[in-house]
Amino acid sequence: MFRFSGIALAFALAFIASPLRAEAPAPNAATQAGAATVTVFAAASLKNALDAAAAAFKTKTGIELKISYAGSMALAKQIESGAPADVFFSADEASMDYLAGKGLIKPDTRVDLLGNALVVVAPRTAKLDKLAFTKDAFTAAIGAGKVATGDPASVPVGKYAKAALEKLDLWATVEPHFAFTDNVRAALMFVVREEAPLGVVYLTDAKSEPKVKIVASFPASSHPPIVYPIAATSTATGDGAARLLAFLKSEPAKAIFVEQGFVVR
User: Fold this and answer.
1) Higher pLDDT, 28 or 121
2) Angle at 108 between CA 79 and CA 81, to 5 degrees
3) 142 and 108 in one domain?
């Protein structure tokens, strides 16, 4: 039987091992940063803009965003129940305040990033092109149909819609006809599918959907300011969340949001 001498065996092992060391892959930028993925819980109205921002962020940093979209308070309750999230991006201050009160965000990371506007939409095929804020106009436009918007009890767009309609003395007229949804995009789809002749949504949602048209824009004075706060959660680890927050405040990200119709604060 052939046997290696001690010197020959050591030489052979070194020869075999050296190519493996030379070909070992270098860690990528995301691994070096300590976070390959950042989990974001975000308001449904942010989908188009945040998806675009996520792609730009990944190109810049190598970090991928895992984004869950829903109504803001529903997401806040999920985080409270232990759902893993690194960043919370809300469509209202109340939902962010709720988590802050539970000690579930990092207060020093919180910032009011965006603003929006409230509009009434109709299907693109509807004969209606302009809706006046009068009882007669709304009654005629609704007919036997529904008005779709978020549930005022839990969805920010619904809260803004209720405040605006009350301010304009239209709540009693419209309230019996509402079809409430658990997020603004669900309300938008009622109008897209022509299951509701009217919907109250954000300007950004209306701009994102070619199958609807804006027939009225609520005065900004008719409802509280529409504010989108963002913050890292108290359970966020690594520097991925901080890097994302910094990117979303940068000029390239601001341009994405403005293109979608948001106001950068």
Assistant:
1) 121
2) 10
3) no
- Location of structure tokens 């390959």: 36
Range of the domain at 254: 29-115+226-264
Q: Do 109 and 123 lie in a common domain?
A: no
Average model confidence (pLDDT) for the chain? Answer: 89
Give the pairing of strands 227-232 and 111-115: antiparallel
Higher pLDDT, 13 or 262: 262
Domain match, 36 and 110 both: yes
Residue 141 has pLDDT above 70, yes or no: yes
User: Is residue 30 predicted with pLDDT exceeding 60?
Assistant: no
CA 74 to chain centre: 13
Residues 6+ apart with CB under 8 A from 244: 38, 40, 57, 63, 65, 86, 87
Distance (Å, whole) CA 15 – CA 7: 12
| CA–CA gap between residue 37 and residue 30 (Å, rounded) | 8
Do residue 154 and residue 213 come from a single domain? yes
167: domain CATH number is 3.40.190.10
pLDDT at residue number 6: 43
186 and 64 assigned to the same domain:
no
Given a cut of 80, whether residue 193 has pLDDT beyond it is yes
Q: Are residues 89 and 152 in the same domain?
A: no
Contact 113, 244 (CB under 8 A): no
Q: What is the dihedral of CA 35, 41, 47, 51, to 10 degrees?
A: 0
Residue 153 lies in a domain: yes
Radius of gyration of the chain (CA): 25
How many domains does one find in the chain? 2
Summarised one tens digit per residue, pLDDT across range 155-179 is: 999 999 999 999 999 999 999 999 9
